Amino acid sequence: LDIMWKFIKNYALEIYSVIALLLIVCVAIFMGELTVIQKFVVFLSFLYILHEWEEGHYPGGFLDLISANVLQMDVSTEIKRGSRLITGVFLFAMTILPFFYGDRIPLFVVTVAAFSIFEGIVHIAGIKIFRLNKPYTPGMVTAEIELVTGIALIVYLATNHLAQWYDYTFGPFLFIACFAIMQRSLMAMIGFRYKDMFAIAKKRFGK
User: Fold this and answer.
1) In sequence order, what are the residues at sequence separation of 6 or more whose Cβ sits closer than 8 angstroms to the Cβ of residue 185?
2) Within 10 A of 128 (CB to CB), how many other CB atoms are there?
3) Is the CB of residue 175 less than 8 Å from the CB of residue 118?
4) Which of the residues 4, 29, 62, 192 could staple to 187 if both were Cys, CB 3.0 to 4.6 A apart?
């Protein structure tokens, strides 16, 4: 079991990518005509795979930027690779729920749209936060496509009157809650606490 757990942590991104791609293939082969919302979610699922690889490997380096500028500590390669396991679970939750229940519960659709928009904003803001010399953060290309897709998904819901005010209100809060849980798990993995991050942020941006 220990060997298996180490394998899963070391190849978390690859495992997530294979499972997510297999689900997309199964949807394409075995499911009939998809709804517009389901098509949006399938496209976002594929984008999330590409985004994880752009952030982590091609060109990669986003976690290194966070380690150096936000955490201000060295994070081992093992922990960096293992952190993709937690991220993969989060991404599955973000996509599976709206795919199967989005047409009945628009709240889940708004949640995944809010996450996609957030990704695009974060990568643009990262240029200033990380004080980069070039207008690019690892993962930015796919993140901006996610942002545009997220906005398009919200527009689709609004123009077709598929969601109510409470979906638009609480969808982003649901995303924030899930994202906070994921971040808390990631920080626990490296022995970091929220108050440590706030202290570093205050020191860095309070200048």
Assistant:
1) 86
2) 9
3) yes
4) 192
* 0.85 surpassed by pTM: yes
Helix pair 140-159, 36-56: axis angle to 10 deg: 160
Instruction: Enumerate residues 6+ apart whose C-beta is below 8 A from 125.
Output: none
Cβ proximity of 33 and 42 under 8 Å: no
What is the Cα–Cα distance from 10 to 22, expressed in whole angstroms? 20
Are 110 and 168 spatial neighbours (Cβ–Cβ below 8 Å)?
yes
Spatial CB neighbours of 197, under 8 Å, sequence gap ≥ 6? 70, 71, 187
* Residue % of the chain over a pLDDT of 90: 58
pLDDT digits (tens, 9 = 90+) for 74-132: 777 777 888 888 899 999 999 999 999 999 999 999 999 999 999 999 999 999 888 88
